[in-house]
Each structure stands twice: as C-alpha cells, then as structure tokens.
Amino acid sequence: MTQQAQVVQTTPMRELLPHFWELARPFWRSEEKWKAWGLLSVVIGLSLFLVWLNVQFNDVYKVMYDAMQAYDGKKFWESITRFSILAAINIVSFVHMVYFRQMLEIKWRRWLTQELTWRWLRGQNYYRMQLTDKSTDNPDQRIAEDCGQFVQLTLKLGLGLLTSVVTFCAFAPILWRLSGGANFGFLFGMNLHVPGYLLWIAIVYALFGSVLAAWVGHKLVGLNFLQQKREADFRYSLIRVRDNAESIALYGGEEYEKAPLRNRFGMVVDNFWTIMRFEKRVNAFSSFWAQLAIIFPLVISAPRFFAKQISLGDVMQISSAFGKVYDSLEFFIDSFKVLAVWKAVIDRLATFNRSLAAAEQLQVPQPEVIPHGLALTEMSVSQPDGYPLVRELSLQLQPGERLLVRGPSGTGKSTLLRALAGIWPYCSGMFGYSRTGGVLFLSQRPYLPLGSLRDALRYPQATLPVSDDELLEMLRAVGLSHLAHRLSDEENWSQILSGGEQQRVAVVRALLVKPALLVLDEATSAVDEPAERRMYQLLLEHMPQSIVISVGHRSTLAEHHNRFLDLQPRSA
Question: N or C: less crowded end of the chain, CB within 10 Å?
C-alpha cells in the first residue's frame, strides 16, 4: 500500500466532533465531574479576566503615546505606573490560569487513562481485540500517549477558541470606533461609505489567510496519523528485540534484526520528511501573513495620522486593536498544525474505542457451573475462519482423574483449552466444571509480572495468604533453591529466568493455590524428564483430588495420567 493510500484512510471531518464527544463526554459525567467543572470554571474565568486586562492595556497605550506626542511627562509616568500594575496582575493571573489548566489536564488524563486501561483489561478484551480487529495496532501507545495528547490538545484548542471569540467581541467595537468611516469612489461618480472599515479589513484579511492555510496544509492530518503509527511500530520492533535478547544473541541474529529495524525507522524518516515539506509551506505562509499583519494597520492608519485626523495614541491603539482582532481570527491559521495532530489522535483513540466496544460485544461461551467434576457435551471448536478442529466432543472427568490430551500439532489441543478457559469465541456445545476450589491454567510460556519474585510466585493472587517459609519450601521442592534469597528482589524475571525455571515458578503457583481443576498446556516442556516427573509427583501429592488436564507431546507424560484423549487432524 502506498503512503498516499494510507493517508486517505482517516476518519472524515464530519465524524470528528461525534468521535470527540464520544471520548470526552464520560469524564464530564463521571464521579470527577464536580471537581472538573469547578476547575474549568476557574480557568475560563481567569482567561476572560486576561482578555479584560488586554482591553485595559489598549487604553493605556493610547494615553502613553499621546503623552509622548504632547511631551507630557506627568501623564506618561502615570500611564507607566498603571501599565506596571496591570502587568503585575496579568502575570499572576496568567500563571494561575496555566496552573489550574494543568491541574484539570492531569485529572482528566488520569481518569481517561484508567478508564481505557480497565476496559482493555476487563473481560479479556485485550485478548479478544486480537481476534476481532487486527487493524488496531499498538494499544500501549494509544493508552500511554494518545490519552495525554487528547486531553492536552483539547484544552489548548478549546480554551484558545473561547479566548479568541471573547477577544474578538472585546476589540471589534474598539476597532470599529477608531476606524470611523471611509468613502470609496467608483466609476460614474459612485461613492460607497463603509463604517468601521478597519474591522472589515481585519476580518477579510484573517479569513482569507485561514482559507489559504487550510489549502496549504490540508494533508497534514493524515500524515500525522501515519507518523504516530510508524513511530509506534518502530518502538514495538525495538521492544521485541529487548524482550527476546537472549534468543537473538544465541542465534547471532543481530544482522538479521538490523534489516527490519532499518526499514521501519526508514518509514518513520520518510514520512517525517513529507510532514516537513508540508509544514514548511504552512510555516512560510503563517510567518509571512503574521509579519504583514504587524505593519498592515500602521500603513492603513498612516494617511489619517499625517492628515492630523488622529493622534499617535490613536494609531497605536488601532494597531493594538487590529492585532487583537486579527489574532482572534487567525486562530485557525496558528492552530492548523495542532488541529492536524488533534484529529489524528482522535482518529486513533476513536478506533481503539470502537475496537474495545466490538470486543465487549463479542459473544464468548462461558463454562457452566456444575456440582463437581468436569463435563463436555457435544463440544465443537473451530478456527476463526470456521475450519473445524474438534467436533462434538463429549467427556466427563471426576475429581482426582488426570487427562492427557495428545495429538499432532494443529489438531486443536491448545485451542480446546482456550475454549475451556472461556476465552475462545469460536466454539459450541455445553461445557462446565465445578468452581469450588478454583481453576488454574498454566501455559507453555508462563507470564511473570514486573516486581519481586514473591509477587511472581503468588500471581495472579497478590493477596494469597502464604508465608515466606512456605514459598521457600516450594522453591526447594521444584529445584529453585538458588533463588531462595531473592524473594524480595524486584527484577524483570522473564528475562532473568530460563524457560525451565519459569515453568517451575508456574508449578509453584499451582502448589500454592491447589485448584480443583488444573490445566497444563505443555507447561513442563522446557524442563528435563526427571524434573518433569518430580513436578507431576508434587502436584499429585499436594492435590490428590484435583482434576488435572495436560497437553503435551512427550511419551513420559502418560505415566502421570489415567485418562487419555487423542485428537486427529481433519481434512479440509
């Protein structure tokens, strides 16, 4: 797909506000709403007060420059004193406006980040999204970065728009009054009298600039969206290398890894060059238009000044008022690049939000609760494309029975276990088991959370009432006595421990929890056969009444089980 094609695939502008409201509304109706509305009121109040101060400054400029023209030192120093007082008030007001705005920003960002994070984690949505929508890339970036940008840019643009509207309403009458009227002659002796002509000139000047700015930089929205995606893809590639450092080092795969990293970063650079070219045009136009706006009011008021119709103070007041009116109308020009980033952020968060909603709506069959044991009745499991893996399987297991699921790769052994766990939507039939005593699934690659070794052993039940002595005993039992002195060490244990050691940690979890149903999906494949035999012996000694279901390829697993299920490959 070409870059141009990717740029086009963004949310239409007509959908921007509905998507924005969909993201913003929940916070302003949440439990934080009263604090949020209070802070917003304070920020708006201070912003309006700053506009009023600007009007006072405009009056001071007239008195100050009129005093200079009349060589009136007394009035000049009086205006300087007034200016100093207003400046001090302005500084204090501005500092507190920014402070309260940042306070609102962090509260909003915290709430939005937590809300999206909890929704992402709730009901295995983080897993379901991989099944329903593979186009929603890099959820980590959307939660960690896009939430912050969304809040920051929303407040910046929203308050900026409000301030611009109020500034226009405050300074337009001043410019109208100072403009007087102007007569424009046409052919055949026709004259046109235009009252407040400077105001009309300022409006036309700013609107014409806004239209040109939109035309010059209209492609920045799609380019910024694409830049965020490519930055996230490159960062993910680097994280993959970090997380698989040992395997890459053993393979000597450094040269191979350079190619995809170089390609992905090359895509970042190429897109950034394109953004630079468009931003160069926007910046060149904005700078030219802004510089012209400085001299323009002086040029159009100079004839009246030299004709002695207005004073120097009037000229400076016209210049100030024209500048404020222009600045308020120039909001779109100055904010176009920010609007482009803001829309790209909303596109990404709205897409993520829709993917979450789709995952929440996905119907995933859940196991029924039965009095005891485990039962499957005509259970079928298939791939997402409908290809059948297991058809109409019926099975019953009683407490204490141990089932070994065997079969060639691709016959659906692991997928069957996902269905039993209630995370696989593509299954049918009845299946259930007793919840008394709990259920625990151990995978081939155990997950070890960041934190202490103690937390890793107790995961996912952080509050499991287990003493350190019990943990040490279990570590020694599974052959991890060399880690006994490191219970409190906080490390990235998935990087420090070998695959076999990680599987031993997972077995410790099972020995601590003692679930009524224990499912092992090749959970001992990384340890040698004597160690595997020892771990199964420990499980049977500590959990004699538990149902154990294992998936594996080793023939030695058979001696630890008394029931067997052989799955055969099916023809397409």
Answer: C
CA 355, CA 342: separation in Å to the nearest integer?
20
What is the C-alpha separation between 194 and 182, in angstroms, rounded? 5
97 near 43, Cβ under 8 Å? yes
- Tell me what the pLDDT averaged over the chain comes to: 85
Residues paired with 191 in a beta bridge? 185
Most confident option among 42-46, 138-142, 277-281 = 42-46
Cα-based distances in Å from 74 to 63, 68, 281, 315, 352: 11, 10, 49, 21, 65
Do 328 and 171 contact (CB within 8 A), yes or no?
Answer: yes
Top-confidence residue, 95 or 230: 95
Here the tokens at position 59 are 């009056």
Q: Across 15-76, where does the E strand assignment appear?
A: none
Element (H, E) at 538: helix 529-542
Closest CA to 205 of 101, 302, 289: 289
**Which uninterrupted H or E stretch holds 13?**
none
pLDDT band of 427, cuts 50, 70, 90? very high
**Could you tell me if 129 and 355 are in contact, meaning their C-beta atoms sit under 8 angstroms apart?**
yes
Q: Coil, helix or strand for 519?
A: strand
Q: What is the value of pTM for the model shown?
A: 0.72
List, in sequence order, every residue forming a beta bridge with 380; answer none if it has no partner.
428
DSSP for 348-401, please give it. HHHHHHHHHHHHHH-----PEE-SSSEEEEEEEEE-TTS-EEEEEEEEEE-TT-
Host H or E run for residue 430? strand 427-433
Q: How far apart are CA 501 and CA 553, in angstroms?
A: 20
Full 3-state SS string of 222-233: HHHHHHHHHHHH
Handedness of CA 470, 472, 477, 483 (dihedral sign): positive
Distance of alpha carbon 425 from alpha carbon 552, whole angstroms: 23
Return phi, psi of residue 498, to 5°: -75, 170
* Per-residue tokens: 153: 């840019």
How many beta carbons lie within 10 A of that of residue 139, not counting itself? 20
Q: How many angstroms separate the CA atoms of 31 and 50, rounded?
A: 31
* Joined tokens for residue 2: 């070409």
437 C-beta neighbours (distance < 10 Å), count? 18
**Structure confidence by residue, pLDDT tens digits, 119-176:** 988 888 888 888 877 667 778 878 888 899 999 999 999 999 999 899 989 988 888 8
- Residue 125 CB contacts under 8 Å (≥ 6 apart), including other chains: 119, 356, 359, 360
